[in-house]
Structure formats: C-alpha cells, structure tokens
C-alpha cells in the first residue's frame, strides 16, 4: 500500500493527521479489542476496518465494543476502506482507518 509516496507492507492505522505504521494485526482472526485502542484514542466519529484482500467480519463483541463508545464502525476489504477513508476525509469527517495488510506469500 502506498500513502503519500511511501510504501507500507505491514498493517497500519491512519487518520487525517496521523499515521501509525506496524500495527500488529495480520488478519481479522488476530484482532482483539485492545488492538483498536490506538485508533480509538484518535477520537474518530467513524472507524473503518480494512480486513485485507477479502471482506471478513470480526467478532460481534468487538463491533459492539466500538459502537458502545459512540463511534461508527464499518468493516470492508482494505481497498474499499482506503477509498471510503478518502471520501470521508474530503467531507471533513473525523475518520480513522485500521488497515490490515496481509503479508506477501513467501515464494
């Protein structure tokens, strides 16, 4: 994934003025509520979760945990999350994205 001309190969968190590289999540199966603490500290009104190349839903309890904090939570594949992030950012919304970048297969 390329952001502002820089290539990223590991999962990351991004907001309007923040980029946190090397987010330790490699798949939705790895995701626990504590992984979202860093992105929720950015106080977004909408949190986008990009789940990699394919859409994959996290446990319902995780979704409920984010919603209970008054934050909208949308789950989509990472490419769609990037497109949606750019649209919401252009609308001056407080949006943050937690983007899972799956490791490249070893040849």
Task: List the topology elements.
Elements (H helix, E strand, L loop, with lengths): L1 E2 L2 E2 L4 E4 L2 E3 L16 H4 L5 E5 L9 H8 L4 E5 L1 H13 L4 E5 L8
Parallel strand pairs: 5-6, 5-7
Antiparallel strand pairs: 1-2, 3-4, 3-7
Write structural notes for this entry.
It is globular and about 45 Å long. The strands form two sheets. It has a five-stranded mixed β-sheet with strand order 4-3-7-5-6, with helices on both faces. 26% of the residues are buried. Strand 3 and strand 4 form a beta hairpin. The mean pLDDT is 93. It has 107 residues and is α/β, with parallel strands linked by helices. Helix content is 23%, strand content 24%. The protein is built from three helices and seven strands, in the order ββββαβαβαβ. It has helices spanning 37-40, 60-67, 78-90; strands at 2-3, 6-7, 12-15, 18-20, 46-50, 72-76, 95-99. It has one domain: Hypothetical Protein Mth938, Chain: A.
């Amino acid at each position: 994934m390329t952001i502002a001309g820089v290539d990223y190969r590991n999962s990351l968190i991004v907001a309007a003025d923040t980029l946190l590289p090397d987010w330790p999540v490699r798949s939705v199966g790895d995701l626990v509520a504590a992984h979202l603490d860093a992105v929720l500290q950015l106080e977004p009104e909408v949190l986008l979760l990009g789940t990699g190349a394919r859409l994959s839903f996290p446990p319902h309890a995780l979704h409920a945990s984010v919603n209970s904090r008054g934050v909208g939570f949308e789950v989509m594949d990472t490419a769609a999350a990037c497109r949606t992030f750019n649209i919401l950012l252009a609308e001056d919304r407080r949006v943050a994205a937690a983007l899972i970048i799956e490791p490249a297969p070893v040849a």
